[in-house]
Design goal:
11 strands; eight-stranded mixed β-sheet; BirA Bifunctional Protein, domain 2; globular; alpha/beta; 4 helices
Amino acid sequence: MEERAAAIRAGTAPELIWLLEHPALLTAGTSARPEDLLQPDRLPVFQAGRGGQFTYHGPGQRVVYAMLDLQRRGPDLRAYIWQLEEWLIRTLRPFGVAGLRRPGRVGIWVIKPDGGEAKIGAIGVRVRRWVSLHGLSLNVAPTLDHFTAIVPCGIQEFGVTSLADLGIAASMDEVDEALLAAFAEVFAGPTTLAQTVGS
């Protein structure tokens, strides 16, 4: 990712999006607080270099790394975060799920059948010389219990959910199709897509 971002900055490679499915692990962003790692021996922990705090990645979760030229697209970090949120919101629509923004809470949220709110999509980015790294994750059908090893994104008051937890049986291929369609709606300009399975 670092090498590709450098090549994009140098103008020697096109933008790129990776669609990944990680093994079960925890990542710590640059704002991660040690006290939010509740079960330090449960899963491997990696320093991610992105913004944000602790999150879980694992099978059944689509992780998206977006290496985009924000200098060309418009050097506005707030606008880019809004676009990432919109990307997730539009990805959820074909599955009948209304994704929501919540002031002061990073990520995308949904109203569960019991009326409570829970996070279904996380966002964590890094921007170096106006090329983006890292990106977002969408919970399709992960093991939600793994999130209990941390305080997800530093937010204790609300839980985490997934499409499967909401009763929606979506395959990863279907989610990828929705992601690509939503990307084309939200982001203008040509982008190369590489799909990778693994870490």
